Amino acid sequence: MPEFDMYVPRDLRDALKFLEEEGKRTTILAGGTDLVPRLKRRQVVPQVLLDISGLQGDLRYIRREGDVLRLGCLTTISDVLESELLGGGLGMFKQAAQRFGAPQVRNVATIGGNVASATSSEDFIPVLLSLRAKVKLLNARGERSLPLEELIVGKRALARAPHELLSEVNFQVPHGNFWSGFEKLGRRNSLAIALVNMALFLALEDDLETVKDVGIALNRVSGKVPQRALEAEGKLKGQSLSPSSISLAQSALASELNLKGDYRASGWYRTEVALVQLRRLLESCYVKARGG
Amino acid sequence: MSKHFVVMTINGEEKGFYVDSTDRLIDVLRERFGLKSVKEGCGTGDCGLCAVLLDGRLVNSCLVLAPQCGGKAVVTLEGLLQDPIMANLQAKFLKHNAAQCGFCTPAMLLAAKQILDRLPTPTREEVASAISGVLCRCTGYYPIIEAILDASREAEAAP
Amino acid sequence: MSEQALRFMQSVKDKADRGELLYVGESPARVDGLEKVMGSPVYTADLLPRDTAYAKLFLSPVPHGVIKEIDASAALTSRRVIAVLTWRDIPGLNESAAVLPDRQLYASTVVRSTADIVGAVVAETQQAAADGARSVKVVCDPLPAVFDPLEALKPGSVRVHPGGNVARQMRIRKGDIERGFSEADVIIENTYRTQFQDAAPMETEMGFALPSRDGAVTVIGSMQSPHHTRAAVAKVLGLPLEKVRVVQAFTGGAFGPKSDETPYDVCATAALASTKLGRPVFCSLDREESMVVHTKRHPFIIRHRTGALFDGRLTAGEVEMVSDAGAYASLGVYVLGRATFHAMGAYEFPNVKVDSYLVYTNNTYAGSLRGFGGPQAAFAIECQMEELARKLNMDPLELRLKNMLRDGKRTATGAPVESCGLPQCVDRVVRSSRYLERREEYRGQAGSVRRGLGMAFLIHGNSLGPEGNDYGAVILEIKRDGTVVAGTGLTEYGTGAVSGLLQVAASVLGVPLERFRLDRPDTSRHRETGPTVASRTVVIGGNAAKVAAEKLRKRLGLVAADIMKVREERVAVVDGMALDTAGEAPPVPWSTLVQEAYSRGVKMWEEGYFMAPPAPWDTETGLGTPYLQYTWGALILGVEVDMETGCYRVTDVHVAYDVGRAVNPSGIMGQIYGGTVQGLGYATMEELIHRDGYIVNPSLTDYYIPTSLDIPEEFKAYIVEEPGPLGPFGAKVIAEPPIVLPAPAVRNAILDATGVSVNELPIAPEKVLKGLRGR
């Protein structure tokens, strides 16, 4: 381990005050499942860690307020797996949680940590992006909100000022007939990094045919971080779901994807699988949204 | 590096001690308190051999920094040697030859205890999932899964 | 004597008359089983005293270069760093090489791989030692390097060692290969490639040394062969063997690398530092260091050219095998041997030409890993048989049955086959897997999910073969309290084989295994016994244990006969009781028997020694009898393939092994489960990747081994017994074989399901999809 100091705040106010003063040289520690291995490998050498894991009362919750669902940043992946609020049409949360790491990791890893790590290995970012989630950033003097898409500006790069704390992610629960799904391609069934993953929600009009709304996000589209597949979404909105409209959506996805390969899998293969994932998710969500 | 005074419960006993900011829970358990059943196989959270029960939940102790542990309760295998569920599990592990080199055994037993505490009669899939974060290179997992299922059946049969 | 007792006596006598043995074939808990489930065994890292210093190795920064400077100044500025060791600090011989003397402990001039060790930093804490090691600057002038063994074979290639890049070559010439091909109706040729596999034992390599005043040193470590480690440490320290004591601590898995140089490296480093500093020193590798430094499975490139008649009979087999040794030969010298002898698989080829090469490159070096050349050879021949079946439009089972070895046939090296249980193994798995019915069911299948069946047959030569003197030594001592203390230099590291060896002794003595206690292997108390490798513990060590037990049994039998006042032939010892099989004299309990023996001054300890007869074969022709017996086996598995993504899963595995005589069935099953899953990992997901000499994924984060969610739902294993001539009661080796067959069987099942031939391991879904798309 490199040498670093740690500050364990008394409460949320204390944490925000610390960030106000020391934010520039501070790295935030929650569950540690992403940060600690990076410390061990010296991929990051922080000056001081701010341990927010104790702020459970303030920051660990899953709440529905009207049609907004709020997840506190210390919500663990196990909390997601066990929450009744994230079932049914929002089932992609459960699917992503089931495929996330392993039991010990799920007990400790947090939604906030997942978002803040901002890499293509963070399975919940596509899930939240597909729902056009927003994030809340707290600071000692107030708070602000911005779309998750705008928070992540690059690999491990957030539009978060040093004195701000990512405290919550939230999203509007879709209305009416909708369903969601999550697909992940990994090389084994536990403790696996996604080669390609995709989160999708599909909402149908009352005719149960026309696509009212759709959100599609992958761990990578054209860069190194999760993004929405806007062209594919565009080809589906307002359309009637059919093999040909799905096929058009796949073509759109193929053209907007620019997936790089590495020793684990080539860009070609990841693209092929993403196209299959799109079709399968659309088909299964369509059936479910119609009550099937 | 900063120093922190941590008060936590270790295998049922309250302890107060100083740690460095860079100390991990696994280091505290093994080196400070001699709890050698907690093993280090990778240090990066990929093998699960360091798993302990922290506030009742299975976690990788190599990923928990010691100053984060204030007010928490940790249980290792040494703290469960009087526990009847654990005794049953140990007997079944012996019966099914579920320990070969023994290095993953403490973590496997804790993962097994965790699932039997929550789901007294788990399915085979639930058992396999419960131990999916602990790697074993010797047994191929089958004897471990059988041992846990056997333990759950016996627990079910007993009043 | 009651009716019941008389009947019991008779049944014991009948059992003995039938040659049936008491504990062989039963599955008592292992001698060290209880400790493990209590979490109490003491592994190397568990015993460090307070004044231990810590040593961490630093490695070469380049795959090939000349060391210009070792700058440890940054390390030495730390208060906590005590010393930095390099080649200059070695009092003895700077060598740590298991077979050929081609490798130094600490590189002095030339570095040949990124796994080369340049030195060690010793410090007060593990953290300080690691920080220190990281801060050492090894400045090298890089040299051109070679990473492809085929390139390394070309004239004009970069030379890894001055003597050239071929560390060993072997050949087999049987019959007349040209005539064989001229007789063939069809000839097919294919090349198969296998990858570097990491053993990934859960406990990494480490050693701990304690100095004593008279310049001697004790080393405790995680290892397979304490005597070899002692020799290596003594050599480096320049000490006579008697001044070095090595004890094997409880070892958390091994699978091969812990019988090669890495234990020598960490133990010699610890010993060197401890003798220099006069205090205990612990030297360990963390997971990532272990994956870079310890030996891997050799990648092989194997070209098969095979001729056969239309009816399926093989006429000729020509094979060229090139293996990537990495920078040092290590046990690769013998891996090449095993691969060569098994090149033609479990099939009869009348005409054989094999040429095999162990080739140096600047990759990290390879050595022992469960299977030891067998998996690579089997992958190639089994894939080739499958391709041949398709070419001949024949069912793969039918083709194999037509050509498989049986009693009376001859192996590729011309050795006669006997006690061959292969037909029974095949029969079991064909029935268990419902192979014939499923062939019918899968015919004409369509849709995006396809099913397939794949099979492979096993021949596995037993024990060291021509590698060296194949001997074992076991000492048994019966204590006054009746406990039987067993000691041997053969080591336990999870296989359960030492327990099996003791079960042999228990059976002969007539005393249950619970009465046995196993000592820690210790070079100061246990004699040289050869390495614990090649699955030889029960076959060779068991014979040695049998020798010791027989001698003790004889002496105790005489004492019992005297106590009971009957003739010696009437005495049976069962469950620790001496019985009169004629039912007249009352039985004598074990404790009484032992006390009596002691009071008569009977010698209550015995050392058993067994050496296998030599395995004669000719290096020129490669013909002869390289192994004295073979383990046989068969595996059939089913896969389900997602045709749209190439992803697949193995749904069911059926295996049968001819183990000669099942000494401990539960232990055998344990090895079968574990070895099969390790073989499935080799087949589907495991690959240590080098780029320009650097391992890209040396961590469990990026090198995937199977988890509990990756194992097939259905697994059926069967034990077949065709006793062989070598092992106790006919036992054959079983610890390594189960890793061999999964890879070709998976590959063949995928071919069956999809028509795609993947000729390179591991079988990544991408390779399947590429094949489906014709890329």
3D architecture notes:
- The complex is a heterotrimer of chains A (292), B (159) and C (775).
- Chain A is built from twelve helices and 14 strands.
- By secondary structure, chain A is α+β, with helices and mostly antiparallel strands.
- In chain A, strands 4-5-10-6-7 form a five-stranded antiparallel beta sheet.
- Chain A is globular, with a radius of gyration of 19 Å.
- The radius of gyration of chain B is 16 Å and the shape is globular.
- Chain B folds into two domains: 3-79, Beta-grasp domain (Ubiquitin-like (UB roll), Roll); 82-157, DNA polymerase, domain 1 (Orthogonal Bundle), CATH 1.10.150.
- The longest helix of chain B has 16 residues, at 142-157.
- Chain B has 159 residues and is of the alpha+beta class.
- Chain B has a five-stranded mixed beta sheet with strand order 2-1-5-3-4, sandwiched between helices.
- In chain B, strand 1 and strand 2 form a beta hairpin.
- Helices cover 36% and strands 17% of the residues of chain B.
- Chain B has helices at residues 25-32, 84-95, 105-118, 124-130, 142-157, and strands at residues 3-10, 13-20, 51-54, 57-60, 73-75.
- In chain B, helix 2 packs across helix 3 (105-118).
- Chain B starts with a strand and ends with a helix.
- Chain C has 775 residues and is an alpha+beta fold.
- Chain C has three domains: 3-30 and 471-611, Aldehyde Oxidoreductase, domain 4 (2-Layer Sandwich); 44-143 and 199-293, Aldehyde oxidase/xanthine dehydrogenase, a/b hammerhead (Aldehyde Oxidoreductase, domain 3, Alpha-Beta Complex); 300-465 and 618-772, Aldehyde oxidase/xanthine dehydrogenase, molybdopterin binding domain (Aldehyde Oxidoreductase, domain 4, 2-Layer Sandwich).
- In chain C, strand 20 (571-574) and strand 21 form a beta hairpin.
- In chain C, helix 10 packs parallel to helix 11 (374-391).
- The radius of gyration of chain C is 27 Å and the shape is globular.
- Chains in contact: A-B, A-C, B-C.
- At the B-C interface, helix 2, helix 3 and helix 5 of B face helix 2 and helix 18 of C.
